[in-house]
Amino acid sequence: MIQLHEVALSGNCHKVRMLLAILGLPYKSVAVDLASGDHQTPAYLALNPFGQVPVLVDGHTVIRDSQAILVYVASRYGGERWWPQDPAYLARISGWLSTAANEIAAGPNKLRLHHKWARPIDVSQVETLTSMTLRVIDDTLAQTRWLAGSEASIADLAVYPYLALSPEGKIDIGSYANILRWLGDVRCLDGYIGMPGMHV
Amino acid sequence: MIQLHEVALSGNCHKVRMLLAILGLPYKSVAVDLASGDHQTPAYLALNPFGQVPVLVDGHTVIRDSQAILVYVASRYGGERWWPQDPAYLARISGWLSTAANEIAAGPNKLRLHHKWARPIDVSQVETLTSMTLRVIDDTLAQTRWLAGSEASIADLAVYPYLALSPEGKIDIGSYANILRWLGDVRCLDGYIGMPGMHV
Q1: Is residue A65 part of a domain?
Q2: What is the C-alpha to C-alpha distance for residues A30 and A117, in angstroms, rounded to an integer?
Q3: Residue contact B92–A63, C-beta within 8 A
Q4: Is the residue at A193 inside a domain?
Q5: ipTM strictly over 0.90?
Q6: Are residues A166 and A119 in the same domain?
Q7: Is there a contact between B98 and A95 if contact means CB atoms under 8 Å apart?
Q8: Same domain, B64 and B92
Q9: What's the pLDDT score for residue A146?
Q10: Judgement on whether residues B53 and B127 belong to the same structural domain of the protein
């Protein structure tokens, strides 16, 4: 059975949980206790030398990085619906996976780490990046229902958690009407599951 | 013909140039002058609302983000050799695309922006992230010839430029023997092209 090494309150882990739930794939959750340093043990670093969560183990296959796990699960278990073959569509999805790994990680995710767990950051610089990123996402969602086009994709799942968690980062998303509409659409996906502490 | 909107000294643009050259795909380079604000014009923002380079235009297809462009070019023009179908291999590649978008962008890339163009950063914090990232990459390349396995992939092209440019970020990569070996291997790929100002 698939094992997911994860932290309950991690948005990166929630991306994967959502896809597994949507596809109806059973898995065993293995809790990683960051406070105890579980992620820095030799056994964990052998799974992911970056010491990050989540890690997915499927038989002999070990995949690190939340975006990579979405690609793995979608391409192995999701069929054409979740892993399209069209290069332009794949690339639009990949562009949003990069945004999740870059701007979302360096923006909304960092603001949450700061306001929820006192991680030191340059608040002004991170807020500026966050506003720019939310503006682009809102403008995108004014033109298409989902981030990469007319269908939900792993792009939406990769971007969703830290936007849904934005109140914990003291981010006011109330003025982004298209993002608010899209957050609701994600929550209506068949199989969607929420996360403890998710307020919107 | 493919058009690549690019900046000569951008490592993100160089990723794409390398793959186009390796695949022997002709393209027209469209220079984006950041100093003149070309990347903030309405016409450019219509191509990429993030205002970043590169952007690739192929007929009616417009792709933003260097990792996404690698996915597009590899999956459309690279065949199984450059766009494998195996989910585990695809996911290993995707993990490194995330690393390029996250740790490499926030580490070696930022140090270069700081030391070459005086971009203000938290030097100590960025150097720590850079050292951690280089250590993981070096350890990976101690186990496999290429980042995602026994063959070169777009993972290597995505990670290469800002490691090759590390002297411009005052990063001493001399102690990372496996990275040095791998930089040489990338430069020996059929079709490899260098970049102005690339020292290693």
Answers
A1: yes
A2: 22
A3: yes
A4: no
A5: yes
A6: yes
A7: no
A8: no
A9: 98
A10: no
pLDDT for residue B198: 73
Across the interface, which of A69, A102, A132 has its CB nearest the CB of B91? A69
Query: Measured between CA atoms, how close is B133 to chain A, in angstroms?
Result: 8
Task: Quick: pLDDT tens for B34-91.
Answer: 999 999 999 999 999 999 999 999 999 999 999 999 999 999 999 999 999 999 999 9
Considering the domain boundaries, does residue B113 fall inside one?
Answer: yes
Burial class (CB in 10 A: 0-12, 13-18, 19+), B72: buried
Q: Are the C-beta atoms of residues A19 and A154 closer than 8 Å to each other?
A: yes
**Does residue B24 surpass a pLDDT of 60?**
yes
CA–CA separation, A14 vs A33, rounded Å?
Answer: 16
> Which residues of chain A does B69 touch, with a Cβ-Cβ cutoff of 8 Å?
91
For chain A, which residues score pLDDT lower than 70? 199-200
Give the domain CATH number at B11. Answer: 3.40.30.10
A contacts of B101 (beta carbons < 8 Å): 97-99, 101-102
Q: Are A183 and A99 in contact (CB under 8 A)?
A: no
Query: Best of B71, B86, B137 to disrupt the A interface by mutation (most A CBs within 10 Å)?
Result: B71
Provide the 10 A C-beta neighbour count for residue A13.
24
Domain range for A58: 2-79
Binary contact (B65, A94; C-beta < 8 A)? yes
Of B66, B95, B139, the CB nearest to A63: B95
Chain B residues close to A91, C-beta within 8 Å: 61, 63, 68-69, 71-72, 75
Within a domain: A199: no
Contact A174, A134 (CB under 8 A): no
The answer on A120 and A40 residing in a single domain is no
Last residue of a domain, one of B79, B111, B139: B79
User: Are A129 and A116 in a shared domain?
Assistant: yes
> B94 and A65 in contact by Cβ < 8 A?
yes
Residues A120 and A145 in one domain: yes
Residue A47: how many other CB atoms lie within 10 Å? 19
**Closest Cα of chain A to B101: distance in Å?**
5
At A16-32, the pLDDT tens digits run: 999 999 999 999 999 99
